[in-house]
Amino acid sequence: MRSKSPTIQPSGVWLLWAVIGLEISLGLIYLWGIVVRGKAYPLFNMDGQMTIPSLIQALQLLIIGLIALSLLLFQRHTSLPPSRLFCGAIAVLFSYGAVDEVFKFHLQLSRLLNTSDHKDWMPIYLAVGVSTLVIFHRDFIAIWRFYPKAIAFVALGMGIFFLGVFCGEVVKIVVFQLNQGGLIPVVVEKVRVAVEETSELVGESLTIYGLYLFVAKRWDVLRAKH
Questions:
Q1: pLDDT in the model for residue 78
Q2: Is the peptide bond prior to 81 cis by the omega test (within 30 degrees of 0)?
Q3: Residue of 61, 75, 80, 177 with fewest CB within 10 Å of its CB?
Q4: Could you tell me where the DSSP H helices lie in 8-82?
Q5: Average pLDDT of the residues in 39-56
Q6: DSSP annotation string for 196-226
């Protein structure tokens, strides 16, 4: 079934491109500050806490969590995917992700585990992500069958997001091990931060757009049934 709202996809596409343009601009402003000042502008520091990029990313994660929560609370009596348990799990995970982005809980994990490795969070968060895919694989399949185009955007967005997170951290480890104390690691680290954080922002925007399409299609189907 095609969406009954003729303007929903064109307006959504324009908004998506506008948001992605803004996110790329944030990355460029971050790098520009480093070039002209030797350090990032405080409000645009992509490696900082409570900055504009950090708060935007937290807001995007919260929006994803709230979309899942809305499906859980307001569309209970339906056989349409996804399951309520899936919606609840996604709402919790992404709401936590929003809080974590603001307060950087994952960076405090090494202190809790009494280690000096600031990457202790990576295997834990990766395990949570993989476990979610395995446990809710039936939901993911059902959602894909319901509206492949929407879920393709979600998959693309999450793929870009996780590639930005984990590949960025791997690049950081490799570069610093190969050339400690030189200029190259410093330059690469700044570029890495810009690419990683911009990838996360863009990935979240694509995910939200995919969810936007999915919720619109789901709403149309529910209205047609009534």
A1: 76
A2: no
A3: 177
A4: 8-37, 52-74
A5: 94
A6: HHHHHHHHHHHHHHHHHHHHHHHHHHHHHH-
